[in-house]
């Protein structure tokens, strides 16, 4: 009987173990991942504390954060600065709507811009262009589909993205210190998917290095104070070598003998470039002949060419992409009243105005092919809808927002 009793006990133990194993196998992968994520948050509290973050601050910041943000990982896979064609990138950011809005703010904020220029020596139009590029003059900050919980976003990257894990951990600790220092409350600690904050999208370590309280209220409030945000951007550029009173670059004509990539990225003085036959695209003389510049052609021989000055490369300290720095420079020029490019991009199609882009998206939406935001910006959703129409019309299915596509929609 004793043997039989032991046998029954072993059966019960084995059955319990099997039940646990079966139950575990039935738990969805997502739930297991969420449990691992919560464990990571709990364990990282000690790391944050060792780096000077109070535990009450940490717990307040992570209150209610229990699951990773999968949208963060999706956005991390696609960065338009490095994947879009240069003209797609520029067209979405340098257009008549962004210029008009920038000029309106140029007038509205003139007294603040005077103070910022006086203190930091950075051109106001460049600062307005950065504001436009980063958050569409603050409009992005109002969008729940874009702005995210910074602690959740950075914890997601630290936990699930091996390439960005170290970056995310560093930025998360810096962000918690910003909260601890009283610059922003945990509930207002919002950011982009990568942890960029406020009107001019500063990552936490950059905020701590360059934050400026130009409105004098005791806080460098880049989340709610546009003057503080613009001054913080100006401080970053100044400390990275911005040359006051100098431009970012000149569009130029390239002599025939230097086509085919020759002299690409070469660094010479303006006078040396002129001696080789390089001239400004608009026919005016090249100024600042002693300054050095690099030849940059982002679309090869068939697109516009530029002699890029020191300030172009300073702009890349904000975002290390040629397309970004070029878009800021071009938009800043147009906000300031200068004309656009002399030589257009080699698109291979007739582009649309911004008003026509709105019309295109509305027509695609009416056909049930597009369900994104009607904003005139042609992203992957718009391109997919355009491709569907092109296939229907027997056009080359390239997804480009061309005059031909819009005319087809108008007629059909």
From TrEMBL:
Domain Transglycosylase SLT: 37-333
Top-rank taxon, per record: Bacteria
Keyword Signal: yes
Signal peptide segment: 1-33
Domain (Peptidoglycan binding-like): residue spans on this chain: 355-407
GO biological process, one term: peptidoglycan catabolic process
Database matches in InterPro entries: Lysozyme-like_dom_sf, MltB-like, MltB_2, Peptidoglycan-bd-like, PGBD-like_sf, PGBDSf, SLT_2
Identification of the protein by name: Putative peptidoglycan binding domain 1
Annotated source species: Fulvimarina pelagi HTCC2506
Keyword Signal: yes
Keyword annotations: Signal
CDD domains the UniProt entry points to: Slt35-like (cd13399)
Pfam families listed in its UniProt record: PG_binding_1, SLT_2
One term of GO molecular function: peptidoglycan lytic transglycosylase activity
